[in-house]
Design a protein that fits this description.
homotetramer; about 140 residues; alpha+beta; Thiol Ester Dehydrase, Chain A; two-stranded antiparallel sheet; 4 helices; elongated
């Protein structure tokens, strides 16, 4: 995945379930951590996007769980910007156990560009500079 | 606890942890369910409070866990309004396993009356009618 | 969806996020509530499955978010058993706002049959009676 | 608080609520992160405690929320071991906004030493070496 760098989280007790593994819904939260840190590392902080009046609600997700994460595992979240249109942005993720690189989960999330009121917006018209910076990241990975 | 009625929740897999029991932080969420349903049952919907410009952030909590709740347990959340001042409101909770009434957890939360911007407000001056309705509930329990 | 009946949850403050809507990962938890209640209504309690030595970890999910759910919304979770093989089971979900039936989210989850140690098991060989009961539910919906 | 060092977390979108602040129950999760990293830093990994047959369920908590944490805030979790008896251990916490040191939350959690089956155990008899190491940490802070 090109120039490798990944956000990291450690599995908390709060994340586990009675099967003794990380509850599956947490991976969507870790995807959030992944794309947030991906954007921060590239100079496009999500908090600043919001300050500029944009939000990126999730409209679609695909997730494949390969192996369970367990309590106290350190995990790497690899994120890439898979697709960008004036209306939408897709991120792809690979979550690995840090210790041995074992792939735990793969997935993607599709987000729409909307105003604070939830109206779709054409990103390039409203924020051409920001859009160009996002375009430059397509295919790149943190 | 006077006229008995309690909100109910069922322990979800998502609520459990690797000890095989409900993760302790969930009880604060169940307290939220308890006070929300307590207020709804008494005609003071929390959503309407917010619509009227008030918020009740939690400023203090005490929690005693007595026995663990387990996956799929049906639990009863007994809520009472323990204390009311112009600036603050305290709820008290008892969480029981529905099947046998076993006490699982006791606690209380203290909330401040604030505006949407987080400024403290004197409830009786800003919403005298609502304050009187809350006063009538002190000591009562759902 | 045939004989209609749906599990219900109410959106908690805990479920909301700073966009003022239900955080997207909660829908996976509501899917869990949906399939649990679907199975309970059909006499196949998930807790008993586990007691019999089986677990059904999620291996895949697809989710489409259509409209946001908001604080205090009552929502209906419609669940159906979409697919069953000796090794896997797929549930499909539609989440609607109870008040007006507005579709909020659609999705599916694929689960493997595994032992408590995580080994795949052929359901029909290990639990023929239970498998037949599940087969009878394919296409049905709660 | 002596030799200062603190675990850090960043407030996720998942942690926020419709008030635009971190939902209060998350602080109990951050307390968990605090004591886990406190113990790891001192060579007493919680995961190893569990491997040795002990668990430390929370039996009591007191929490005071002082100021809200917001999305994307970096926060420091200062943890100390406040009290140790053969049967129980208490941790104290201070959560601060990293940027300016603003105190956001204070609290403590009391835990019992129990076996995997939930029976109380006298720590010094069952694990004298480990108990001595914990004793040496009373009053220290990470």
């Amino acid at each position: 995945m090109g120039n490798m760098y990944a956000a990291q989280v450690r599995v908390r007790y709060a994340d586990t379930d009675a099967m003794g593994i990380a509850y599956h819904a947490n991976y969507l939260v870790w995807f959030e951590v992944g794309r947030t840190e991906f954007m921060r590392a590239r100079g496009v902080e999500y908090a600043k996007l919001e300050a500029a009046g944009f939000m990126l609600p999730v409209v679609e997700a695909q997730i494949h769980w390969r192996h369970p994460a367990r309590y106290d595992d350190l995990i790497d979240i690899e994120t890439s910007l898979a697709e960008l249109t004036p209306a939408r942005i897709r991120f792809a993720y690979r979550i690995r156990r840090h210790e041995d690189g074992q792939l735990l989960c793969e997935g993607s999330t599709l987000h729409g560009f909307v105003t604070r009121e939830g109206k779709p917006v054409a990103m390039p018209r409203r924020a051409p500079e920001l859009y160009r910076r996002l375009e430059a990241l397509v295919g790149a990975s943190v």
